[in-house]
Every structure is written in C-alpha cells, then in structure tokens.
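Weekly structure sync, notes
Attendees: PL (lead), two postdocs, one rotation student
Agenda item 3: pending single-chain targets
PL asked that the sequence for the first pending target be pasted directly into the notes so everyone works from the same version. It is reproduced below exactly as submitted, 269 residues in total.
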Amino acid sequence: MRRFILETLLYIFLLVVILIGYDYGQFIEKMNGKEVYFSLRQSKTKHYRKKIMIGDSVGHQLFPSAQDNDTVAYMACNQAVTMAGMYFLLQNYIETNRDSLPKEAILLCTPDALHNDLDIYSFQYFLKPFKQSEYGKWTTPLLRERIHDVRLWWASELPFVRTSNFTTTYCLSHADYIQVSPLSAEYIIKMDSLLTANNIAFVMRSVPLKDIYQEKIDGALQASLQAGELPEHIYQPYIQSVSYMPSSAYVDHCHFTYEVLDTISRQQF
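Predicted structure, written out during the meeting:
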C-alpha cells in the first residue's frame, strides 16, 4: 500500500512537471499579448543591432516584434506594459549585448502611452511577462505600490495562471497629472539615464496621430511641458515629432488601416 501511494505521488509529480513544461513551451501563441513575449525574446537575444525600437501597439504595427531585422531590434509591443516594461526590455538588451551595444534607442508611441500608470490590462500584459521574481531588482517603490494595488497581483506568477488568459478585475486610483503619469515620468527618466550611461542616444518620437484630435493633443502636450512633467531635453523633441493624418487612415482612435500602413515610410523614425 505504501509503495502504491509513493508511486502514485511520483506519477502525479511527474505529470505536473510535464504539463508545466508543455504549457510553458506552447503558451505564447495562445496568449493575449503575445507581442510582449516576442519583444522579451528580442531583448534577450545576443546580436548586434544599430538601433533598438521600443514602443506601444502602434509602434508595433510599424515595427512588429515577431520580425527580425539586420539593423534594428524590434521590441515595440503595447502601452499596457507601461514605460516600466519598456525600461525592463532595455535593461535586458543591454545586459545581453554588453559587448556590442547599439548606437541609438527609439521610444515610438502615441501620447496615450505616456498616460499609462498601470491600468486594467496590467495583470495580463505587464505582471505576467515581467515577473517580480525576475524584474523586482528594477522595480521602484512607486511601481511596487501600484503593483500591490492590483487585485491578486501575486497570482500572476503561478504557472497555470501565467500561461493562460486568466486575469483579474480591479480599479486603480490615479494621481493628478496632465499627460505623463508619475510612473511613466519616472521610468522615462530612468531610460534616459541608463542609455546615457551606456553611450546610447535616446530619442522619443510620436507615431502619426488622428487629425480630429489635434487641438486636444497639442494643448495637452504643451500644458504638460510647461508643468515640467518630463525634462525638456527629452520631451521637447517628442512634441516636435508629432504629426497628423486624416481620420480615414485609422481603423480606431490610433491604429492604422492595413492599406495606409503599407504606405508609411519607416525611414522617418
């Protein structure tokens, strides 16, 4: 009887190990936000590229992280990873490619991405891929406080949760700001410091925006600049890069139609 129990327990243990291994090996394709995992893979790949491209989902439309390129490391994914997630990608890339660093890193995103202060998508798109057990060393007190406000945040590292589309519902409070959230500001400044320390030029650029929002966006960006939400040497070039396209070029408030996407020159970025 004892032998039967031990063999049964051993069988269950091995079955769990096999299932976890299979789950981890197969889960990316079925995940909401698989582009984040493609970006993570790029960030941990040893190869020389002249540029790094990080950014939100519109940046990902232009430079898909699932594709490879001889000169640019594509690591744009979506705004739900927050600027903290984008900073983690940069840290990964620099640690992996310490002996062959790029010359430039470009943050390509809409102004909405600057607004993110952790949101209702953070459990799925940020906490799962950027596990605190791995990225806690780069987590600031502000980010940790925001993470702990996410319902069941600790469950994001459980194997069968992390490799599924299970998420939690929650509502996070927000600080008072115009355009750039405190979390975004903190990690963009950290990006600038990290890249400067490694002799990598840092540029923030905007993707083309929908023209019906021009008055609102221009006003918010100028007010944000005057309020000092980001250092001027980082923020002013970003604001100057803002351009607009007709509403017919978009399928929603910010993403391009497939037809227009093929006509946009990537060289401008």
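Discussion points:
- The radius of gyration is 20 Å.
- Confidence is low (pLDDT under 50) at residues 10-25.
Action: rotation student to compare against the earlier draft before next sync.
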